[in-house]
Write a sequence for this structure.
């Protein structure tokens, strides 16, 4: 007898096959310059931000709950002639997150949001076929930054920030991630076979390019990608954050170094 949820399974499978094929095709033919910069071993400045105690409960999945190495990745685009300012771009991300992700394979589900979009305590589900669903929660939002933490069931354990700022007449948009694979299977696909890692790279590159399109400006010099890693979140000492709430360890100084 056919199970009641079989049509749902077939729909998900078909979407995965067609969507993944389309995303892969677009990725292979992507003409946007990607400056990947290689990978290198990190240090204590690559540890994830310290979260306020009230933001962490039994559903939160921190980097130390993961499996294998901690990856610290930064995706950055410089936008010329933008029609909006950094605060407006972050506001777009918060109010319409789904417009920035590849819709062929990703659905975004949120609860009822306030007029200004995602805010502290709100949760959203990044739904992908197979084992790729990603529940996250907002732990900080201000005019220039949206900060999320992963929840139980996510393929990764860690945090991600979306930021925008002005620099030298350009609008800069960044996605910064600190995450470990959530389990052995993801560790295999991410760290060894690199499948999940390339899927993630494609998703965040598309997100950055959507930010460029939303701004009304033009991409100045490609997408810049940096990856650093630690054997595990516990291989370097945690030191107090140098910034405000949710500000990465030493991130302000590191951003100044990166932009030179």
């Amino acid at each position: 007898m056919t199970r009641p949820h079989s049509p749902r399974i077939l729909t998900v499978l078909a979407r995965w096959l067609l969507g993944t094929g389309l995303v892969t095709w677009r990725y292979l033919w992507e003409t946007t310059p990607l400056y990947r910069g290689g990978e290198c071993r990190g240090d204590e400045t690559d540890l994830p931000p310290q979260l306020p105690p009230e933001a962490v409960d039994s559903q939160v999945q921190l980097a130390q709950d993961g499996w294998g190495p901690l990856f610290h990745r930064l995706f950055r685009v410089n936008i010329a002639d933008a029609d909006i300012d950094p605060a407006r771009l972050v506001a777009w991300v918060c109010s319409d997150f789904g417009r920035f992700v590849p819709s062929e394979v990703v659905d975004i589900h949120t609860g009822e949001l306030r007029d200004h979009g995602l805010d502290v305590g709100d949760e959203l589900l990044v739904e992908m076929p197979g084992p790729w669903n990603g529940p996250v929660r907002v732990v900080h939002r201000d005019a220039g930054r949206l900060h999320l933490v992963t929840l139980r069931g996510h393929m990764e354990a860690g945090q991600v920030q979306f930021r925008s700022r002005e620099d030298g007449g350009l609008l800069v948009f960044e996605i910064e991630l600190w995450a470990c694979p959530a389990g052995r299977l993801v560790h295999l696909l991410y760290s060894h076979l690199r499948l999940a890692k390339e899927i993630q790279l494609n998703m965040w590159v598309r997100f950055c390019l959507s930010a460029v399109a939303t701004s009304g400006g033009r991409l100045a010099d490609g997408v810049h990608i940096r990856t650093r890693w630690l054997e595990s979140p516990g291989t370097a000492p945690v030191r107090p954050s140098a910034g405000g709430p949710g500000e990465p360890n030493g991130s302000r100084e590191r951003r100044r170094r990166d932009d030179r």
